[in-house]
Specification:
single chain, two-stranded antiparallel ribbon, elongated, 12-stranded antiparallel β-sheet, alpha+beta, 14 strands
Length: about 350
């Protein structure tokens, strides 16, 4: 029969081991997270300071800053694997000692009466697994929900919605560094492809675009832009940002575009804002394509007010863009780009399935 003093010894041993592990893990995590947060926040402040220099082309500098952020955010695979091997070996040894101690005290006889005595051991093993996960998050925080609010993953630094929601940054100033341009290219079978060009691949926003007069548009598109870049094929490292990305927005009929100059409006709706940013392009025709010779005029539209409910864009006030009312049901939390082949009748909405590509 198990003596109370013997079982108390087991409980004390488990408690002592867990408390020691808790202290070690707490110190280890706090040191790593503190150093990471300090360095990464300094880099993030550097990025935000550059974003306010609207009139300068800082795309190359921003690109290098994001790469530097990724370098400090991630650790190489070999040191991370070595640390995790050490952690796994230590946890395995502790669990083995506990199991052997239980078998020795219980005299290797497991009965219905002794099964409840094993519950503390089971609870201790579960806590050890949780501690292991905490350590893994500390040394390799990629896509970690525990720390992403403090040190966002490098891929989130291209998200306009994330930056405007968690950092005091001017969205309008930051978007100027994306160097938006609109390009309309003639394709076969009398088709015209409308393409949004970005020098830096900022994403995570809803958009609404009209090409031509508001009362009689030549093209009408809307939806959400959210990029998904594949990791490097050799190293497996994530790709936080890309240069010179082209985003197809839809197709229209080329014979509609007859004027030498066409005005286009590109409205952008990021999260955590209430007024959209409007980029007004003046597109000039050159043989079989249209493009903007100058940078677009970027303004904040006070006449349009919106909010988000359950990820869906809700227009509260709309002055100047009446066609937006007819497509507001499509502003859902989906990474889809829609357009109308015939903007006048607005029938048979289509999805632009062509993926974004690097030029």
């Amino acid at each position: 029969m198990l003596q109370k003093e013997q079982y108390l010894f087991i409980i004390i041993s488990i408690g002592t081991g867990l408390l020691s592990l808790l202290g070690s893990v707490g110190i280890f995590i706090s040191l790593i997270v503190q150093r990471k947060v300090e360095r990464l926040q300094a880099i993030l402040e550097e990025l935000i300071d550059l974003a306010y220099m609207e009139e300068q082309n800082l795309t190359g500098t921003i690109y290098r800053i994001v790469q530097k952020y990724q370098m400090h955010y991630l650790l190489p695979n070999e040191p991370v694997n070595t640390i995790m091997y050490y952690i796994d070996a230590t946890i395995s040894l502790v669990v083995l000692i506990w199991v052997l101690l239980h078998l020795f005290v219980i005299s290797r006889s497991i009965t219905l009466e002794t099964i409840p005595l094993l519950l503390p051991l089971l609870g201790a093993i579960i806590i050890l697994i949780f501690f292991r996960k905490l350590l893994k998050y500390a040394v390799s925080p990629l896509d970690n929900p525990l720390l992403s609010g403090i040190i966002p993953p490098p891929t989130r630094l291209r998200s306009i919605s994330f930056l405007s929601g968690y950092v005091n940054v001017s969205v309008k100033a930051l978007l100027k560094q994306a160097r938006f341009n609109l390009f309309i290219e003639k394709k076969g079978d009398n088709l015209a492809s409308i393409i949004l060009k970005e020098e830096l691949s900022f994403d995570d926003f809803f958009y609404f675009i009209t090409v031509g007069p508001q009362e009689n548009p030549l093209f009408l598109g809307f939806g959400k832009i959210l990029f998904s870049f594949d990791p490097d094929t050799i190293t497996g490292k994530p790709t936080p940002l890309q240069h010179n990305i082209n985003v197809p927005l839809g197709l229209s009929k080329w014979d509609k575009f007859k004027d030498s100059e066409i005005e286009a409006h590109f409205l952008l709706f990021p999260y955590s804002e209430k007024n959209p940013i409007n980029s007004t392009f003046l597109l000039t025709r050159q043989n079989s394509y249209y493009f903007s010779l100058n940078r677009p005029e970027t303004t904040i539209l006070d006449g349009v007010v919106y909010k988000f409910e359950c990820g869906k864009l809700v227009i509260l006030e709309n002055k100047g863009f009446p066609l937006m009312e007819s497509v507001k049901q499509f502003f859902e939390n989906k990474n889809e780009r829609y357009y109308y082949p015939d903007p006048l009748t607005r029938k048979a909405v289509r999805t632009c399935s062509e993926a974004a590509y690097i030029d």
